[in-house]
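Dear colleague,

Thank you for sharing your sequence with our group. We've completed the structure prediction you requested, and as agreed, I am returning the results in plain text so they can be pasted directly into your records. Please verify that the sequence below matches your submission; if there's any discrepancy, let me know and we will rerun it promptly.
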Amino acid sequence: MSDTAFATLGWRLNQRSDAADRLSYSLYRMTKREQWVMLDSELLGNIITNTELPRPQAQLENLIAWMGDSLPTVGATVEVSQHVLSAVGAKDMTSVRVLLRHAQQSGYIEGEFADFLSGGFAVHGLRLSLPGWGFYEELKRGQTSSRYAFIAMQFGRPDLDAVVNDCFRPAVAATGFELKRLDDSQPAGLIDDRLRVEIRQSRFLLADLTHHNKGSYWEAGFAEGLGKPVIYLCRKDVFDDRTQGTHFDTNHHLTVVWTPGNLGEAVEKLKATIRATLPGEARISD
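Please find the predicted structure tokens below.
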């Protein structure tokens, strides 16, 4: 952790009630692949602002994945402690107990539950059942997700083409993904069909709104409808224009603002945003 991040940590954690939960969940996913994370003030702020804690179904999947990763053999057992909160993305142990009960009723886990008067609980002999191991294997296969990102943008603008090549592509590549645009290849077929396929096959989408391109807005909405993360981009003078700027529906979303004369700053901000958005998947260091 950088000195600045450490100095502002207390203030950051007081920004919102779930700030500590967001940070704990993100750091677990970042370090799960045995890589060191340099937590500077910008990454810290992005994590607390942009990380979304998983919904109940995703928490259940995280729980099963944590158990499978923790168990060396089929018959082995695991103990549940406060550390599981980071892995699951839950706010409290009551939520974990609900998830464990549901997993037991669904036949994914085995064990003897003991509830205490204090409100706590324990599970003796907690293990994955054979159906639970099957579910775990399905989850692991599903984690082999796309390493592509897709950019929605205005075509026929050499200035924007240069920004994509000099700024956006290197930033995306530094996080372990490859940035694709619709005109990178021209296979046979309708453009609209190819567009949908490219978005579906991508892990996340960049949408540049500099030229008020209606297609960029549509593609961003299509990606969000599929549950894919969308990161908005815009040239600074357009973004700052209150009358001709970006559409108000996107104003509350995080936007990486760039200027032609200072693309280096945009590269760093885009990398930090991708890493905060996909902490368990993005490469954390250059």
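Summary note from our side: The longest helix spans residues 158-174.

Kind regards,
the structure core
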